[in-house]
Amino acid sequence: MPRAAQSPPAGFVCVERGPVVLVADTAFAMPLERLGLLEPGALGRALAGAGGPSGRGRLAVLPLEGRRERLCLRPLHRGGWLGPWLPAALGSLERPLAELAATLQLRAAGAPVPRPVCVLGEKRKDRGFDSAVGSVFEEGSVDALQFLESGPPRGRLLQAAAAAGAAVRRFHDAGGCHADLHLKNLLLREKEGGFEVLVIDLDRARVVARVSPRARLAELMRLYRSLHKRHLLTRVGPRGCARFFAAYVDGDRTLRRALRKGLAWERLLLTFHTLAYR
Fold first, then answer.
1. Predicted TM-score (pTM) of this structure
2. Given 1.10.510.10, 3.30.360.10, 3.90.1150.10, 3.20.20.140, which CATH number is that of 142-277?
């Protein structure tokens, strides 16, 4: 292995080779090196040449020698309103490393999030970084948008809605604050007797001591608006929404009342967003 840098998260090692920086789970460090990811230009070649599901940019899904898991590499870009007019590269690796730290903390607290594997960055001539976050690829899974667009039978849809509500509740209870919770950021895998759901794409996610009811409702309504925006609200229907909400509150009447208090404002926001969708 190349020389190691300082202060990676516990259980991770940071190695550098020329312009390339790799922060990797020690259990995956050698398979990642064998992939050639420490070679200059490897990140760009991996993202261009390896097929994977699309989301925020292309995802590269790569085999890992000596392991049964595959690696999912998700590139990071500048976002927000000014994103299209700013350089694509990040100014540093601070953002992907923050995502790695948040994901590790949330997993340790029991949140249903992917297993992080690495952060990969390559310094460019303009001094910016091309970067990606790597996690274990979740075999046999689809995001909630794909699932709903496939037209699942009513019983499966209701099961999935309940599993999604329970997963988001666990995420919030672990202190997770998602920056952009929408349909494509819930990953569903059907298992015998139900569904497993993961909350994914934790770029800019935060971990706090307690997620307030107001913050919880804002994220739940962002997810609800994504149903509206994708014209899938009718497909989910009142029963599907009720299953999600019931699983989320899980009999907690205090939380239910606190969430309902903020609905008037969120419904007003929904009206404005609906005008924008048109």
1. 0.91
2. 1.10.510.10
